[in-house]
Amino acid sequence: MSSGINNRMHSLLELIERHYTSQHDVDFYAAKLSLGKKRLNVLSVDVFGQTVKQLLTQRLILQAKRMISASGSTFKEIASKLGFNDASYFSRFFRQHAGVTPEEFRRSLSQKQ
Fold first, then answer.
1. What does pLDDT average to in each consecutive run of 10 residues of the chain (113 residues)?
2. Is the pTM here over 0.85, yes or no?
3. 83 dihedral zone (left: phi>0; alpha: psi -120 to 50; beta)
């Protein structure tokens, strides 16, 4: 694998880390890296074994779990901080990708303590 591809994929991870709360669209990252969306996804799967959308989702879920466990923030506040305009959409997104609702996740944390 060429160093140019490695540099771009490193740049992709940096962009995701910097913008994951405000940019949930793969087109944004493709444009920033001067690549087509399909080409970026092919490279991402080759290097990371995941599409760009999967990397974004993974980062959002990780941060959501951190925020739910570390703060007394409402789910609406957490959704807003993560770039979701609608708390109910955030709850559906979280349930789809984490396997439980944000409420169930928070309850499971309090039961462990």
1. 78 97 97 96 96 98 96 91 95 97 91 67
2. yes
3. left
